[in-house]
Amino acid sequence: MPIFNSLLSWMMKKRIHQIELFIKYPHEVQLEWFKKLTTAAKNTEWGRKYDYSGITQLEQFKERVPLNDYNSLQPYIERLRNGEQNLLWNSEIKWFAKSSGTTGNKSKFIPVSAEALEECHFKGGRDLLSIFFHNHPESTIFDGKGLMMGGSSSVSEINNESYYTGDLSAILIQNMPFWVQFKSTPSSSVALMDEWESKIEKMAEITIEHDVTSISGVPSWTLVLIKRILEISGKQNLTEVWPNLEVFFHGGVNFNPYREQFKRMIPSPGMNYMETYNASEGFFGIQDRTDHNDMLLMLDYGIFYEFIPIENIHDENPQTIGLEQVEIGKNYAIVISTNGGLWRYLIGDTVKFTTLDPFRIQITGRTKNFINAFGEELIIENAEQALSIACAKCQATITEYTAAPVYFDNNKKAAHEWLIEFETMPDNIEKFIDSFDNALKSLNSDYEAKRYKNMILGEPIIRPMPAQTFYNWLKKRDKLGGQNKVPRLSNDRRYIDEILLLTDTGSKL
After folding, report:
1. What are 82-103's pLDDT values in tens digits?
2. Which regions of the chain carry the CATH code 3.40.50?
3. Rounded to whole angstroms, how far apart are CA atoms 17 and 390?
4. Cα–Cα distance between 16 and 294 in angstroms, integer?
5. SS (HEC) of 233-302
6. Which fold has domain 370-507?
7. CB proximity list for 291: less than 8 A, separation 6 or greater
């Protein structure tokens, strides 16, 4: 096994030279991908509709092709799911990544081409390992097993052809190279189980017997698995179960609310954490520095990027800018064109750039994941930072949370209501509320203005939730595991009222 580890680590390190190439020539690499994508799709139904054959300049592309979201591409995607081909992309589409983004009822089915699998998602996985080995040349993670929290998939038969739908992680597991399968635990049959409670139980029983050296997954669901493993093993922390565990590759949700819990459960000083930005639509970013939590924007994955300044997102025809025009610290909505057939597609995420040489980003939230009921324009980044500040001041840790507005009602003042499931309760809840409120004021001038003398917004209402509240809510909605996440910020009370009804808190309101 040491020879196997040495060979694979050598292969991973070779890729660093190619990464350095797109870092050195970012604009040239992106322009090359723009030309490759439009050339590949020129004879598809979409390419003929917008005359891709006649596009020679980027400005022509912007003029001819409208900005799209899932709803505008859905008719094409439904036809693809019914067996038609050559609609959005020129190669056969047989895989669809099911994604809801939040816990909404409506699912999205993102087409995944063979090129998207190989040139984007798998390439991102290899680069993740390459960067890890570059930063940690002494690593021996291939001497042990990698644990991946996978989703589930299903097969549809149309005209004697098989079409596969599942979480992105399930699609990756079903298509991953033999050497990755050889070094992974549990087996794909267990990793792809669709009943999450049974899957967690089975994964805990199986993986506890292996020498796990790396974990990949969404922090919230990984914690559920870790807690079950500790219950079964009777151990105090995960280091006692897997003494050679080196790294947790995480993504999907902000890691800050979970960081302290992971440090408690994995107290090893040598433990590493690497963030990735891998969505159903594409693999976008990898944390490349051990002392910063921003991510290198990966520019050679078959994705062409455009950006919309967040203040222009609701314009009738918002104008996009390229990498050459972005600025550090500003919020942008991401627009992508991909080798899976998504064209000028708004994925719904917002980012800010932390460096421009190379281009590094941080996820700041969602274009629709904010509270702006009273002109306060509270984004997810504000909430995450303020909660971290309040937790640090009050020795608290948070498992899950969600928030929504409380609207004016007779003498009731408007406010934001926060349902928070604490892993460790604050030593003083009033101090926590005050710290949180003051942090939000310091981070968001619009919020601060609305809070002035309680004239518009009252003090935040924080309701500690019983353990397992959000888990039980997701279970009731048949939304355990996979791409399903607790919505953080909402402009209506649909989710928050559902959750309150599940608890004694709801009956006391």
Report:
1. 999 999 999 999 999 987 544 3
2. 2-286
3. 42
4. 18
5. HCCCCHHHHCCCCCEEEECCCCCHHHHHHHHHHCCCCCCEEEEEEEECCEEEEECCCCCCCCEEECCCCC
6. GMP Synthetase; Chain A, domain 3 (3.30.300)
7. none
CATH 3.90.79 fits 2-286, yes or no: no
Q: Which of 56-70, 123-137, 298-312, 445-459 has the lowest mean pLDDT?
A: 445-459
Question: Two tokens at 251?
Answer: 């993504």
Six-digit token string for 117: 């699998």
* Partners of 287 in beta bridges: none
Q: How far apart are CA 315 and CA 420, in angstroms?
A: 34
Residue 482: per-residue pLDDT: 63
Segment 350-401, tens digit of pLDDT: 999 999 999 999 998 777 777 877 778 788 889 999 999 999 999 999 999 9
Instruction: Give the sheet arrangement for strand 161-166, strand by strand.
Output: 108-113, 93-99, 161-166, 153-158
User: Is residue 267 within 8 Å of 278, Cβ to Cβ?
Assistant: no
CA dihedral 203, 209, 214, 219 (to 10 degrees): 30
Q: Distance between CA 362 and CA 350 in Å, rounded?
A: 9
Which pair of structure tokens corresponds to residue 71? 């709803």
Helix/strand/coil for 478: coil
Q: What global pTM score does this model have?
A: 0.79
Residue type, 209: E
Cross-strand partners of 148:
216
Q: Outline which parts of the chain fall under CATH 3.30.300.30.
A: 370-507
If you count them, how many residues does the chain have?
509
With b for 16 or more beta-carbon neighbours within 10 A and e for fewer, the 354-391 pattern comes to eeeeebbbbbbbbbebbbebbebbbbbbbbbbbbbbbb
450-454 long-range contacts (CB < 8 A, ≥24 apart) are 450/374, 450/375, 450/376, 454/413
User: Which residue, 258, 263, 252, 298, is CA-closest to 101?
Assistant: 252
Residue entry with tokens 């190989």: 118
